[in-house]
């Protein structure tokens, strides 16, 4: 096209000479104008019908983030839109903690905030249930940092059929000068109401109840529901006030039919008697893989019970028993000797944290000698035990030896499996 012809077309189109209007490069494409119009009117016409697939993502970048959730939840899947919504409302958004989904993050954080601010009134309950029902397909885990209403939690389980992880702390945050002891911690009625739901749930696999001032009586109420539960594999009751009677009740959930693989009881009030009940359970339990007892009060006798129980255990791989008053500093204590005997017999434990005890120099040497005969242990934390640096270095060297041996065994096993698989393929081809 000649320059003159182009100028004539330009004048006919804009009614002005070319030098009097913006260049064509500054005129927005018609597709952009259409997308802007569709986004502007999306609230009154919420649909993607007629929008080509390649333009939908661009439209999601323009749709207002204040749409009613009843409209946006079932209709919009694009993470571009939900990232904008979440970033407008929340700080420190980490989608990797929410299934790597911005949509899941938005609905879980929104529900958490609503539950934490719930005041217990019927009007607030109706609004909260409406929100949960709208969000039910996108909520899988909840971390409720304050639940001051102490309401019946059945509404959570009834409204959220996909809930697999619940972390809930009863109480209030940032109370300042309005502090009252009664508003903190779980009550007996709270434990009973939660136990009723634990007995019925078919989806919950993780239950975290730390910092709830749980004592023995409340744990006994919870166990009523936990005994009938067949889904919870991760149970965290750390930072509470559970003592020996509560531990005895919990051990009823560790029988032959138990499905709990991780039990966290750190920072409680468990003494030697509680250690005895746990030790007995460990003798027959075949499911528990991770047991965390650090920062309790087991003492020498309690440690002995635990280690005796592990002599015949073939499931546990991780044991945290640091800060429990094991040993007397001289290495003459009974617990370290039973621990060493257990290391010679047990072939499943790979990680032990026995730090912040008082095993002493001789106790360190006893552990070193036991590790000479153990080929499975990969990591052992023996810090703050008054063990000499030379013995600590020797223990570290033995653990590195085990790691290398296990790596070689895994490689040999993989090669053998590959050869068998290849042999099977060759035999099939010949037939």
UniProtKB/TrEMBL annotation:
Name under which the protein is recorded: Uncharacterized protein
Classification via InterPro entries: DRC5, Leu-rich_rpt, LRR_dom_sf
Note down the stretches annotated as region Disordered: 402-431
Q: Which UniProt keywords apply?
A: Cytoplasm, Cytoskeleton
Query: Which stretches are tagged as biased composition: Basic and acidic residues?
Result: 402-421
Cell location: Cytoplasm, Cytoskeleton
Source organism phylogeny: Eukaryota, Cryptophyceae, Pyrenomonadales, Geminigeraceae, Guillardia
Tell me which Gene3D superfamilies the record gives. Answer: Ribonuclease Inhibitor (3.80.10.10)
Q: Which domain of life is it from?
A: Eukaryota
What PANTHER family does this protein map onto? DYNEIN REGULATORY COMPLEX SUBUNIT 5 (PTHR24107:SF20), YNEIN REGULATORY COMPLEX SUBUNIT 5 (PTHR24107)
Q: Which GO terms describe its cellular component?
A: cytoskeleton
Q: Among its keywords, does the record have Ribonucleoprotein?
A: no
Q: Does the keyword Cytoplasm apply?
A: yes
């Amino acid at each position: 096209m000649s320059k003159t012809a182009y100028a004539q077309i330009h004048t006919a189109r804009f009614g002005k000479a070319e030098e009097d209007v913006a260049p064509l490069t500054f005129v927005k494409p018609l597709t952009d104008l259409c997308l802007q119009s569709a986004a502007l009117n999306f609230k009154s016409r919420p649909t993607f019908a007629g929008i080509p697939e390649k333009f939908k993502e661009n439209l999601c970048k323009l749709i207002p983030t204040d749409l009613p959730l009843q409209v946006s939840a079932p209709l919009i899947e694009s993470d571009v839109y939900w990232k904008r919504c979440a970033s407008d409302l929340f700080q420190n958004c980490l989608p990797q903690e929410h299934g790597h989904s911005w949509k899941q993050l938005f609905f879980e954080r929104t529900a958490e905030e609503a539950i934490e601010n719930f005041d217990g009134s019927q009007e607030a309950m109706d609004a909260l249930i409406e929100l949960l029902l709208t969000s039910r397909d996108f909520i899988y885990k909840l971390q409720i940092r304050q639940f001051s209403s102490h309401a019946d939690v059945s509404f959570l389980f009834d409204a959220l059929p996909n809930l697999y992880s619940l972390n809930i702390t009863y109480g209030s945050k940032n109370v300042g000068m309005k502090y009252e002891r009664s508003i903190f911690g779980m009550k007996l009625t709270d434990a009973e109401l939660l136990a009723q739901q634990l007995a019925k749930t078919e989806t919950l696999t993780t239950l975290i109840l730390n910092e709830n001032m749980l004592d023995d009586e409340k744990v006994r109420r919870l166990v009523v529901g936990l005994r009938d539960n067949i889904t919870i594999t991760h149970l965290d009751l750390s930072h509470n006030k559970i003592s020996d009677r509560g531990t005895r009740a919990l051990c009823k959930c560790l029988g032959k039919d138990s499905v709990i693989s991780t039990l966290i009881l750190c920072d409680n009030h468990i003494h030697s008697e509680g250690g005895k009940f746990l030790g007995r359970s460990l003798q027959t339990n075949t499911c528990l893989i991770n047991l965390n007892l650090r920062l309790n009060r087991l003492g020498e006798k309690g440690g002995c019970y635990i280690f005796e129980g592990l002599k015949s255990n073939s499931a546990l791989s991780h044991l945290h028993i640091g800060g429990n008053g094991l040993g007397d500093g001289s290495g003459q204590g009974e617990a370290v000797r039973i621990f060493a005997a257990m290391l010679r017999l047990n072939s499943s434990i790979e990680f032990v944290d026995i730090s912040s005890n008082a095993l002493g120099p001789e106790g360190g040497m006893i552990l070193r000698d036991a590790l000479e005969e153990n080929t499975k242990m990969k990591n052992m934390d023996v810090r703050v035990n008054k063990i000499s640096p030379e013995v600590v270095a020797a223990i570290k060297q033995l653990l590195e030896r085990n790691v290398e041996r296990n790596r070689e065994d895994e490689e040999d096993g993989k090669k053998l499996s590959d050869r068998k698989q290849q042999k099977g393929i060759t035999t099939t081809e010949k037939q």
